[in-house]
Amino acid sequence: MQDQFINRNTMQYEIAVSGAAEISHCCDKIILLSREVGKAIARQGCVLVTGATTGVPYFCAEGCKEAGGFNIGFSPATSEAAHVKTYRLPVEPFDVMVYTGSDYVGRDIIMTKSSDAVIIICGRIGTLHEFATAFECRKIIGVLEGSGGTADKIKYIAKGHYRVSKKIIYDRDPGKLVEKVIFAVKKEKQKIKI
User: From 3.40.50.450, 3.30.450.40, 2.10.25.10, 3.10.20.740, which CATH number describes the 8-186 domain?
Assistant: First the structure.
């Protein structure tokens, strides 16, 4: 059943979700939380962007689809055949697949740079790479606290001897986190309009 809450005025925003493809180290509710983030992005009328992989990105894409949203998967592979056979990644439930041919590291950069904001859910080293890319590109970053893995280490990492970022948003509630991230994106977009 599809939700009917899509706000078409924000459809131009692309919100990337970065998270663990292998979820055994994540919190117990990781599948539910991931789906809720995907649904919330769809309800806000935004496009979900993921790395077209298993685990958190997959469950976000399922939630997005369930809520009537649209999502784009950025594959590390050069083709659908390589995506499925070499990388062993799913093709469904992604609406559009971009075959970057850039392996995981290159895919991470292309996906992150093409999005308006990045939401971190659980994660491992690849998620840390996407966080660092988003941080260096001065993207708005949302962190789903309590989801485990990389997400629960971001606050500590971000408080180190680095450039301070005022663009990192933390919340434990998937819906509230998505709302805060989209509000920050709207605010930023208003500043750059001429």
Answer: 3.40.50.450
